[in-house]
Amino acid sequence: RHVTPHDTRSEKGERHAPAAAPAGPPTGPESDPRRHMTAPALNILAAAQRVLVERGFSGLTLRAIAQESGENSAMVQYYFGGKEGLVRAMIDSVFRDDQDEAARAMATATGEARLPRFVSGLRRISSSRSYRVFFDILPYALRNPGLRGRMAHAYDHYRRLKRDWLRGEHPVSRAEKDALEGVAELMTAVVDGLAIQEAIDATFDARRAYAILEHMLQRSLPELLERGSVGPAGGEEDPAHRESAAGGREPGRSRRVRSRGSVPGRSFGHRR
């Protein structure tokens, strides 16, 4: 039978609770909209991602999604409220599976195994099919204030995940947290850049770049955590650095200097 957007039953007569993407920005891991979706809504979301990868954003129409999913087009509107609601759900969920897999791997890594596992997780994410969905959404999101803000919250979530993966279970000082946040920001840019190269060049192999990245982190991360925040680049001096200099200390370094690689509670496998 015909299904209207306000009908609560599928064509098989089964009743389904509403599962539209939340209107506000995501706030953390609990914001994954798929946790509250019914099977038809999940089917529609997966079909929309396939359509997006195969046909691009201009080909992401309700008709194409309905054909790909086998659901009535009115059900697409019912669950997501239209194309923009579907795009919001994709932004909120696009990397969740890849991140969950990386998080499970990080949860069992200790000591010197943490950094190799961390870099392996980054490489898995950048090689994921999810990036094709992300790249197709990005130009549209940049021109839509609501979606741009939602993308910004998603990026904040990505950075916090990377920071937490590097931190592990150990407590950190404010300076160490600042350093880890800077590393997470840089790693997010690295993953995006390598994913772009993999997307446009089928012969591109990111393994060399990630091997170099791991080597750089092994050598620099203990020192970054020892020094804390290194301040702005480009020769600018922030008030904290001026205060440190006035106190007779090297900017960014505490009075008691530890030997390189001896950060309490951590072993990142630093090698000279």
Give the helices and strands, then pairings:
Elements: H1 39-55, H2 62-69, H3 73-80, H4 83-93, H5 96-107, H6 114-126, H7 130-142, H8 145-167, H9 174-200, H10 207-227, H11 239-246
Helix pairs in contact: 1-2, 1-7, 2-3, 4-8, 5-6, 6-9, 6-10, 7-8, 8-9, 9-10
Please describe what this structure looks like.
Helix 7 packs across helix 8. It contains 11 helices and no strands. The radius of gyration is 23 Å and the shape is elongated. The chain is an all-alpha fold and 272 residues long. The longest helix is centred in the C-terminal third of the chain and has 27 residues.
Q: Pick out the low-confidence regions.
A: 1-30, 248-265
Q: Report the helical percentage.
A: 55-70%
Largest sheet: none
Outline: elongated
